[in-house]
Design goal:
Layout: E1 4-10, E2 13-19, E3 23-27, H1 34-41, H2 43-49, H3 59-66, E4 83-91, E5 94-103, E6 112-120, E7 132-136, E8 143-147, E9 158-162, H4 169-179, H5 181-185, H6 187-205, E10 207-211, H7 217-221, E11 224-225, H8 240-250, H9 252-262, E12 269-277, E13 280-287, E14 290-293, H10 299-312, E15 321-325, H11 333-345, E16 352-355, H12 359-363, H13 366-370, E17 374-379, E18 385-388, H14 390-397, H15 402-407
Parallel strand pairs: 3-16, 3-17, 10-15, 15-16
Antiparallel strand pairs: 1-2, 1-4, 4-5, 5-6, 6-7, 7-8, 8-9, 11-13, 12-13, 13-14, 17-18
InterPro entries: ATPase_AAA_core, Bact_Antivir_Def_Nuclease, P-loop_NTPase, RecF-like
GO molecular function, one term: ATP hydrolysis activity
Organism: Parablautia intestinalis
């Protein structure tokens, strides 16, 4: 889980040490930064998950290009100011802090990683600084240093190595080992640091990020070729039928659980399943003794199917984070409450970030917010991000729900455009 996050100069996101819970709700006006915040917190993950998506030589450069080159820099930042990220997470029970800083421009030559480091996120007694596992580019671009210990106490010296400033260390580590005999010959680096880097990579690769605006209902309604290769929804959810078919083929009990959840939305549902028709695969719903395929049902029903899969489907790979931008789109208020309850009871992800404009959706998180299990962040047009604590609004909230404060534009909560 991400415990703390800092970001400077990425689009309109500038914040220090935001602290999170398992469920994190983002509210605020359009253009206040909610979507950019999700982009920021998942920047490194997106880079690792799509290293070859682009025409450039590195995962880092391709990520910079996808984010618009110099347009990813905050427009009011000083010229050549770095973009800084810092994630405080837990790896194998140990709190660590990963920092990633880079400069951007309108060409490959102007884009370089300026700092990449992994340190302990807690200060051990008797030491004046946190233990550092590795640090790159801090004193000289293109040079990094590994620690020859993996915790405070044992004798530690630093081993220097050359590192490309246009690619993350994770993507270069194997080549660095092969090129540097001293580093390859150090078992702590070859084994322990390698394991840390592997765990770090798998943590960030476990992020799943979706936006309702990208869901393509026309693709979802099409009959698909019979195959069982897709094990997760793509960004437009067009492979929904294939993913469902794969999971129900491997685990009949999962199909039963999926249907049970869907009955929270459609109480008279009898069957949800895939059938073959003319060498194609079609998803069908049966309720009120009538059969419907996805070309017959509403946008809201399609969204319910997608969110059921995203929230309640166990993943083959560990899902460390799920982020959904505006899940309430096309959803009836009663269904929004069901979706919110799914999120709070699901055990299929470690952490969740949701942006919303819906007071009805916000209502359902009130009780868990009071107990500190749901965090609410208000984004303002001046780029301020404010974490709302229950004690901050206890008088204004009273017996109301969070959505009531939002509906009435209560300044204690905020989040309105005026």
């Amino acid at each position: 889980m991400i415990n703390k996050f800092s970001c400077h100069n990425f689009r309109n996101i500038n914040t220090d040490d935001l602290e999170f819970e398992k469920i994190n709700i983002l509210i605020g006006p359009n253009n206040s930064g909610k979507t950019n915040f999700i982009k920021a917190i998942t920047f490194f993950s997106e880079m690792l998950q799509n290293p070859g998506e682009g025409n450039l030589k590195s995962a880092f450069l391709n990520a910079v290009a996808r984010n618009g080159w110099e347009h990813s820099l905050y427009k009011h930042a000083e010229e050549n100011a770095p973009i800084d990220f810092s994630w405080e997470i837990c790896l194998n029970g140990e709190p660590v802090r990963y920092k990633f800083s880079f400069e951007v421009g309108n060409s490959v030559e102007k884009c370089n990683i300026l700092l990449e480091e992994l340190s302990s996120a807690e200060l051990k007694e008797g030491y004046d600084r946190e233990f550092n596992y590795f640090r790159c580019h801090d004193f000289k671009i293109g040079v990094g240093n590994f620690s020859t210990a993996v915790k405070v106490g044992p004798k530690n010296r630093r081993l220097a190595f050359e590192v490309d400033s246009k690619e993350t260390l994770i993507m270069q580590f194997k080549d660095i080992l092969l090129k540097n005999q001293k580093i390859y010959g150090n078992e702590l680096i070859r084994v322990n640091i390698a394991q840390l880097l592997y765990d770090l990579q798998k943590y960030f690769e476990g992020f799943n990020v979706y936006s309702s605006a990208q869901f393509a209902s026309d693709k979802m309604r099409e009959a698909v070729n019979v195959k069982a290769l897709d094990d997760s929804l793509n960004q437009n959810a067009g492979n929904f039928t294939n993913v469902f078919n794969r999971y129900k083929s491997e685990d009949v009990l999962w199909k039963i659980k999926f249907e049970d959840r869907l009955r929270d939305l459609i109480p008279n549902l009898q069957v949800a399943d895939t059938v073959s028709a003319y060498d194609k695969l079609v998803f069908k719903l049966v309720y009120d003794n009538e059969q419907y395929d996805l070309s017959d049902v509403s946008e809201g029903t399609l969204k319910g199917l997608i969110l059921n899969m995203l929230i309640n489907m166990p993943m083959k790979k560990a899902r460390t984070l799920l982020a959904i931008d505006e899940p309430e789109t096309n959803m009836h208020p009663a269904w929004q409450k069901v979706i919110g309850n799914w999120m709070q009871t699901a055990d299929t992800f470690n952490q969740c970030f949701i942006s919303t404009h819906s007071p009805d959706f916000l209502d359902v998180f009130t009780e868990e917010f009071k107990h500190g299990k749901v965090a609410v962040f208000v984004f303002e047009n001046d780029t301020t991000i404010k974490k709302i604590q229950y004690n901050d609004i206890i008088d204004e909230l009273g017996e109301w729900e969070l959505g009531d404060l939002y509906r009435t534009n209560d300044p204690a909560l905020g989040g309105w455009p005026w």
